[in-house]
Specification:
- This protein is an alpha/beta fold and 610 residues long.
- The protein has 22 helices and 19 strands.
- The chain has three domains: 211 residues, Aminohydrolase, N-terminal nucleophile (Ntn) domain (Glutamine Phosphoribosylpyrophosphate, subunit 1, domain 1), CATH 3.60.20.10; 212 residues, Rossmann fold, CATH 3.40.50; 70 residues, no CATH class.
- The strands form four sheets. A six-stranded antiparallel beta sheet has the order 2-3-1-9-8-11. The chain has a six-stranded antiparallel beta sheet with strand order 4-5-6-7-12-13. The protein has a five-stranded parallel beta sheet with strand order 16-15-14-17-18.
- Keywords: Amino-acid biosynthesis, Asparagine biosynthesis, ATP-binding, Glutamine amidotransferase, Ligase, Nucleotide-binding.
- Its EC number is 6.3.5.4.
- InterPro entries: Asn_synth_AEB (IPR006426), Asn_synthase (IPR001962), ASN_synthetase/amidase (IPR051786), AsnB_N (IPR033738), GATase_2_dom (IPR017932), Ntn_hydrolases_N (IPR029055), Rossmann-like_a/b/a_fold (IPR014729).
């Protein structure tokens, strides 16, 4: 999968600062534990850390290509192009000669053959930096749905970039500054495309290209969801969805290293596992290996995912292994620190992030690539919000609709004047208006269908990126590549335009997906209710958090105190101390978020700026 980073400077020579680029590259070791390298030219340095998945012996990066003994282009690339074998044959027919079997060389040669239009040929998940020596120009490109991350930081004479903010912040020109918009983004969870929280830093938006040349930086889209008439009848639609998903999964099982599937026994992961098992069997390869998670220890819950997963694995002819995590490990300071370091930001799902990190760490000892079911809920309407008319008609993001705006709220640790001073509600409303303006319109579409198309678009472009970022950071922190077949371009473009009346034809969540995979899954999976990823209920975990909160409250120099109000914080802390074990979980989200923000501000030496 890999991590990429680099520096373009038109008024200086990065080759004179090799240690700086090497330090930036070193921050990506977790993403690429197998190898590393740096390419230098007069105005550029490209860094790369490699997780070897395709052609382990030949896919070394940064990779260069040239003509007449001169380098014409260099590439630092993270991701997988699933149809690279087909593209390689096209390029061979056009006269290109290949010295490796890697998809990296296919990407590089595709640029040399098709120029800027090469991005339209790439089918996969990727983030790449391509330096054109002839033009002295850098291209930063991110995949269509934003599965792989890519950040950039404009400077006075160029740009810094990296797979993660930590790579950019390793450069002395970049500073971890938090301004008003960063605070608004952090506190409102608006998840604005392109926003990176840190002042002066941005994300390459999904489906976009950032072009950097002397004195100029532009960002342009090369793909976006389009509204198209859906002309297939219901039976044809069901068959088409099955074939598109089957093909997507099969295409993503290609790897030169051990591959597995994440399996909860729910509809999404079971669908992926079933088609992956079929694809491997058809190629005469060993059975698919599936992993599920269970918890041991106080408050760990029944953990019945493993039983459901084992039944599904037996049904599709896959091997199954349940990985049991001790709930006490979620309190481990080292694990919590690793999660924060992987995230780069205090956003997240607390103990669920830590357990996901520990699960991936265990899987990485057995496999290098995993298939996962992200995207199915957003694409097929799996969340309760899709089926709550109050949420779908709310004048905000559906997942932010609570329906209890007038309900009393408990004391807050943060300065109560902060939301008004920074205009949180106005900021959220502006971001919602921007999101609505991005929704494609199908002429003649009825009001109800248009509303549900809008809801689907909001989830795919504003909600899904949060989950993709979480999955990428927790998996790449241990060098595990996770692929998401539900986000195959052809499948997404097709299902996005299927009318809601077909997607929810029987009133259940993900009705269309259920119908499409009915012949491949047992009834126990098809009738199982959607269950969320388990959260910890261990009283020892709560006690650890209370102790950490007490330390923070006693530390008058704690960085986060700049955002706190002493009276309100004292009241909130008193409420936490009084709470019975069963009540604490209702308060935990607020004060655990406060602890994360403080840890982040300390570890990253965050500066608050106006």
């Amino acid at each position: 999968m890999c991590g990429i980073t680099g520096w373009v400077a038109y008024e200086q020579d990065p080759t004179a600062h090799r240690s700086t680029v090497e330090a930036m590259t070193a921050t990506m070791v977790c993403r690429g534990p197998d190898a590393g390298g740096v390419f230098h030219d007069r105005h550029v340095a490209l860094g790369h850390r490699r997780l070897a998945v395709i052609d382990p012996a030949g896919g070394t990066q940064p990779m260069t290509a040239g003509e007449d003994g001169r380098i014409t282009a260099a590439l630092s690339y993270s991701g997988e192009i699933y149809d690279f074998a087909r593209l390689r044959e096209q390029l061979r027919s056009a006269g290109h000669r290949f010295r490796t079997l890697s998809d990296t060389e296919v990407v590089l040669r595709a640029y040399l053959e098709w120029g800027d239009a090469f991005v339209h040929r790439l089918n996969g998940m990727f983030a790449l930096a391509l330096w054109d020596v002839r033009r002295q120009e850098l291209l930063l490109v991110r995949d269509r749905l934003g599965v792989k991350p890519l950040y950039y930081y404009p400077t006075v004479d160029g740009v810094l970039f990296g797979s993660e903010p930590k790579a950019i912040l390793a450069h002395p020109q970049a500073r971890a500054r938090l301004g008003s918009d960063g605070l608004r983004e952090l506190m409102t969870w608006a998840n604005t495309p392109g926003h990176a929280i840190f002042d002066g830093m941005f994300q390459v938006r999904p489906g976009h290209v950032v072009r950097v040349s002397r004195g100029k930086l532009t960002e342009t889209p090369y793909w976006r969801l389009e509204a198209r008439p859906h002309e297939d009848d219901f039976d044809t639609t069901v068959d088409r969805v099955r074939e598109l998903l089957r093909a997507a999964v099969a295409g993503q099982t290609v790897a030169d290293v051990p591959l597995c599937s994440l399996l909860s026994g729910g509809l999404d992961s079971s669908s992926v596992a079933a088609f992956a098992a079929q694809a491997l069997r058809a190629r005469g390869e060993p059975p698919l290996h599936c992993f599920s998670v269970a918890f041991a220890g106080p408050g760990s819950g029944p953990g019945d995912d493993a039983a459901h997963a084992a039944k599904l694995a037996d049904h599709v002819g896959a091997a199954h292994e349940s990985i049991t995590l001790d709930a006490m490990l979620l309190s481990d300071p080292a694990a919590r620190a690793a999660v924060l370091r992987a995230r780069d930001l205090p956003q997240g799902l607390a103990d669920m992030d830590t357990s996901l990190y520990l699960l991936f760490k265990a899987i990485r000892q057995r496999s290098t690539v995993a298939l996962s079911g992200e995207g199915a809920d957003e694409l097929f309407g799996g969340y309760p919000w899709f089926h709550d008319e109050n949420a779908t008609r709310a004048r905000t993001f559906p997942w932010m609709h609570t329906g209890d705006a007038g309900a009393p709220r408990g004391p807050s640790f943060l300065d109560p004047a902060l939301p008004e001073r920074l205009k949180f509600e106005e900021y959220r409303a502006d971001r919602y208006s921007e999101a609505l303006a991005d929704v494609p319109v199908l002429p003649g579409e009825g009001e109800d269908e248009r509303r549900m198309r809008t809801v689907g678009h909001l989830f795919l472009t504003r909600f899904l990126p949060m989950l993709l970022d979480r999955k990428d950071r927790m998996s790449m922190a241990v060098g595990l590549e996770v692929r998401v077949p539900f986000l195959d371009q052809d499948l997404v473009e097709y299902v996005f335009n299927v009318p809601w009346s077909m997607k929810a034809f029987d009133g259940r969540e993900k009705s269309l997906l259920r119908a499409a995979v009915a012949a491949d899954l047992p009834q126990s999976v098809l009738t199982r209710r959607k269950e969320p990823y388990p959260a910890i209920a261990d009283p020892d975990y709560d006690q650890m958090l209370k102790s950490r909160l007490a330390e923070l409250m006693a530390d008058t120099a704690a960085p986060v105190r700049a955002l706190m109000d002493e009276r309100s914080a004292a009241e909130a802390h008193a409420a936490v101390r009084r709470a019975a074990p069963g009540e604490l979980r209702f308060l935990r989200m607020g004060f655990e978020s406060l602890i994360r923000i403080d840890d982040w501000m300390r570890d990253y030496r965050v500066e608050l700026v106006e």
